[in-house]
């Protein structure tokens, strides 16, 4: 099973994104606390980290102990979901689609902006506008 966690010093935003992503992917959300990368790798070979630093939020995906995907979260919107719950994530980023589609339910959506949409519990929906990581 996949693991979704935050950086050691998480924020309300990073925890919200992580919980919604875990719910959408059918993964397990774990509060990071003082756990290091080595412990995460031992727990699961595939995991996501939502981190917060001075540049903002970042999304990272590790598979088989190596970083496979990294995106800067340019903006984050949490809103009430309208309509039916979508299992998996919806994205307009082709690289994310190709990387994650091998293991997770991912739907491709055409958009001029790079987006990742994850339906969370209790009618919550996280909409992430993404940019390339520097």
Query: H/E element string?
Result: EHEHEEEEHEEE
Radius of gyration: 14 Å
Helix content: 10-25%
Strand order of the largest sheet: 2-1-3-4-5-9-8-6-7
Distance between the termini: 29 Å
Number of separate strands = 9
**Tertiary shape:** globular
User: Counting H and I runs of at least 4 residues, what is the number of helices?
Assistant: 3
Biggest pleated sheet: 9 strands, mixed
Q: Give the low-pLDDT segments.
A: none
Counting helices, strands and paired strands, the structural category is alpha/beta
Mean pLDDT: 88
Share in β-strands: 35-45%
Can you tell me about this structure?
The protein is 21% helix and 43% strand. It has a nine-stranded mixed β-sheet, with helices on both faces. It contains three helices and nine strands, in the order βαβαββββαβββ. With 134 residues, the protein is of the alpha/beta class.
Give me a quick take on this structure.
The chain is an alpha/beta fold and 134 residues long. It has helices spanning 12-25, 37-43, 94-100; strands spanning 3-6, 28-29, 46-53, 56-63, 66-80, 89-91, 106-108, 115-119, 124-132.
